[in-house]
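Because showing beats explaining, we think one record worth quoting, sequence and backbone structure tokens together, and here it is:
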Amino acid sequence: MNSASYVPFAFVAFILVFFGLMIVLVRRQQRKTLENLTKLAGRLGLELKRQPAKLGFEPLPAVEGRHHGRPVRFFNYSTGSGKSRRTWGAVSAAVPGAGAFTLELAPENFLTRIVTALGMQDIQVGDPAFDRAFIVRSNDVASAVAALLPEIRTRLLAAFPRDVGGELAVKGGEVRYAEVGGLQDAALVTRLADMLEVVCDLAEVAEALPVLQPQPQIL
């Protein structure tokens, strides 16, 4: 058998090894995610939510329950597709009475300073340290300023992770803090847990704001 006849076998062997390694990696990430979330649920008195396995793989678990009487959740989700697909780790608290009010907050950085200079919204709340640290956007400026109470600002300055691409938003009936990454990362899970209190505090404030009604669409 000449060397050329070995090429198909080598290619098949490479494919099998590649997919075998991928399966090992996925299972390792699943195991680490389950371990991290089991510890998190026990520490916070919440419940680990698992789903039945499909084709031998278990969908990503989540941690759910109530914190200070409010529904909260730790979970993974994805945005984009193909090469632009990104996985996020998140903690959220329900705000059923927030109406159409939206608030987005992210750390100030070189890029945000450039786009702000080009006209992107950045609400100033009148707190120099906070205004330097964060960029704030909202569809209701007065409500955004009212929601960012001094104690909320203090907690955000202390707890909000820097240089990890985190985002905090009030939208769609919840307050959500999220950053890029998977829950197999113990450090990310710890950061999410550290943000739970301020997420719940902001949810409580947002629920007390006057309800902003959706604007009617003009046909």
About this structure: Residues 7 and 61 are 42 Å apart (CA to CA). The chain is about 40% helix and 25% strand. Residues 6-44 form the longest helix (39 residues).
